Amino acid sequence: MSATTILRHSRGLCQFAKLAQATPSVRSFHGQPALWSSFRSSQPVQPIEQYPEIEVVQNPPEWKYVERLLPPKTVPKPLAKNEYPSGWQPQKADGTELGYFVARTKNHMVPVYLNTTFRGQRRLTVVRRIQGDIWALERDLRSVVEQARNGKLCATRVNELSGQIYIHGDYVDVLREHLKAKGF
Amino acid sequence: MFKNILTRSRQLINPVARNLSLTTKQSNVAAESEAASTAPAPLAAPLILVQNYTEYPPVNRNANRQAWIENTDTVAERKVGLIELHPDVFAAQPRVDIIQENVEWQRKYRYVSMAHAKTRAEVRGGGRKPWPQKGQGRARHGSIRSPLFKGGGVIHGPRSPTTHFYMLPFYKRVLGLTSTLSVKLAQDDLHIIESTDIPTTEPQFIKDLIDERQWGPSVLIVDKADIFPENICYATDELGFVNLMPTFGLNVYSMLKHDTLVLTVDAVKHLEQRLLYQLHRNDAISKGDKFKLDQV
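YS: structure for the whole thing
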């Protein structure tokens, strides 16, 4: 049995050979790479006869199906529901009674982050986008973290100018849940 | 001169035409924002531009800012209307650290250091061994242009041209603009004018106007369109302390360089729309990529 017959008996390979026949060359959007590009590196415009016939249609009815697939330009507003399966909840408080306010990010998330430095040896929890009385919020968050540490003291740093609080250690989940419970 | 008289007479004959078009345009804006104004406002009605918060609800808890719209057709100040400014653009947290980073970036990215020092290979001469290796009781040397010698080459000296180009992260540039606009407004250095139409081409008119309204020694006038009316171009051409700029050229350095920032209503609307889009855009991650010089 020669090699060609083996090939013919293998179904998958036959299909592959058909596919390769159907698409003779690899299709790409750019004829030339964009690296070191200049206006000379683009293919010059060909005579109009070289291009396929097209029909220009204004506002075709099918366009709404294309629009449905296009991503929105800006982050859409979340749909109002009673409960969300992910545990996410919309912001409820506006900070009038507490004196401070933690704004959501543009993706409607609570801005609590973990900064790791020194090869993961130092973990800092950062609360960002704070407006209003940042020192009251710092006292509040520190008591929450100290409760989570079974009463041990916790080191914090407040940057009032940029509205950020840095807390030593990984307390992202604790603080995020706390802020969500407060309505932020 | 003749043109001057013509424009003046046109204004005398038909002073309401410009106002009319403005008020109708204004009513369009208002109708878009809120369905409050139905009929076109009467001629003398003030421009009340209400902010539309449906598209971009304010993240900032600061109260929204309101600013007077001033006229430019006379030297004497007259309040033409009132504009509500979006707090995320005009009442943002004044991040002076980000403003400083923007200024430093704008100074540096265009700076090319021309300081240059020659290495031992580039200094003239020095090919011959100054004295034999052994027998003189002197230190061994191979070249009089060695860096040990007076008049020799320099090790690790400055080499020209050295560029200091870098790109500030995109959102630091956006925050720089919002911070500086907020700072300018808070310091009463931001004025909003109806349009950039002035009645004459005389620089004295602009000088008097600036004196009368106590605008700073230097004034930056920003409009949405990049082609300004002829009169203001002639009037400010000879004045080094008054500059015109389209909104797409607005930058932190120029705003701080000039004492007073003067925006037209169109410019305010355009800036708000562009900056709020950048603060809410869905594909913001694509702006965090490495800056490529050859991006097409």
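YS: worth flagging: Residues 100-181 of chain A form a domain with the Translation Initiation Factor Eif1 fold (CATH 3.30.780.10).
IM: good catch. Also Chain A touches chain B through 21 residues (CB under 8 Å).
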